[in-house]
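PROTEIN DESIGN WORKSHEET
SECTION A - STRUCTURE
LENGTH: 224
TOKENS:
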């Protein structure tokens, strides 16, 4: 492991020298990293308040209220907490939990409808977060129909996936969580080739061990 760590360190050092980042100061590296984050950061596409339309203005005020946003976040957390146990058709708790999750999905559908009324469909579609919410809500509506019509393992598994996808919508509802996710995405993107190199190296060691010691019988006297 020590030799492997040294090898990876040398590879990273040579890679940094080839890119030219090894000669940068700490502040210059932070500035370069900030510019890369700004490339993937999305500006907030928030349409103005429609003062000329009373219904849309009313929906706009509700959806932009801080209490409304916190309530939706709490609903997402409550919906995700239903995954604490597995959803199997032969378990007695599966149908009640799935039905409660279907109720949460209906509330999320109401939220998307209110935002479409407040922003108009064109204004709602400008934000990537809204597109993802709409996609998950569409899958949720399909699952609600499947749940009340089928109620089998397939519908439960589909609902399980929808709840997991719904959990990731909470990252866009808070600035700190959004920045954390952006940091993770940037880190994974920058470390992708290093991670793949480590994976291939470990895979090479594993295949070599299987080829060399694959015919050794299991037991205490391995040397015989």
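SECTION B - SEQUENCE
RESIDUE ASSIGNMENT:
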């Amino acid at each position: 492991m020590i030799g492997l760590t040294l090898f990876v360190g040398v590879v990273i050092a040579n890679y940094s020298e080839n890119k030219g980042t090894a000669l940068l100061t700490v502040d210059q590296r932070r500035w370069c990293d900030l510019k890369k984050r700004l490339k993937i950061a999305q500006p907030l596409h928030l349409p103005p308040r429609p003062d000329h339309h009373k219904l849309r203005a009313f929906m706009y005020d509700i959806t932009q209220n801080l209490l409304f946003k916190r309530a939706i976040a709490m609903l997402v957390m409550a919906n995700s907490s239903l995954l604490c146990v597995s959803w199997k058709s032969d378990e007695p708790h599966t149908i009640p939990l799935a039905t409660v999750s279907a109720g949460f999905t209906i509330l999320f559908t109401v939220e998307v409808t209110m935002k479409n009324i407040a922003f108009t469909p064109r204004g709602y579609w400008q934000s990537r977060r809204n597109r993802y919410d709409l996609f998950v809500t569409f899958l949720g509506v399909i699952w609600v129909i499947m749940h009340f019509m089928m109620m089998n393992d397939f519908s439960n598994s589909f609902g399980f996936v929808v709840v997991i996808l719904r959990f990731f919508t909470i990252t866009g509802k808070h600035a700190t969580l959004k920045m954390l996710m952006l940091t993770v995405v940037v880190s994974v993107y920058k470390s992708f080739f290093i991670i793949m190199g480590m994976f291939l190296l470990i895979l090479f060691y594993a295949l070599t061990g299987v080829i060399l010691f694959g015919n050794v019988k299991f037991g205490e006297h391995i040397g015989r």
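SECTION C - NOTES
DSSP finds nine helices and no strands in the chain.
The radius of gyration is 25 Å.
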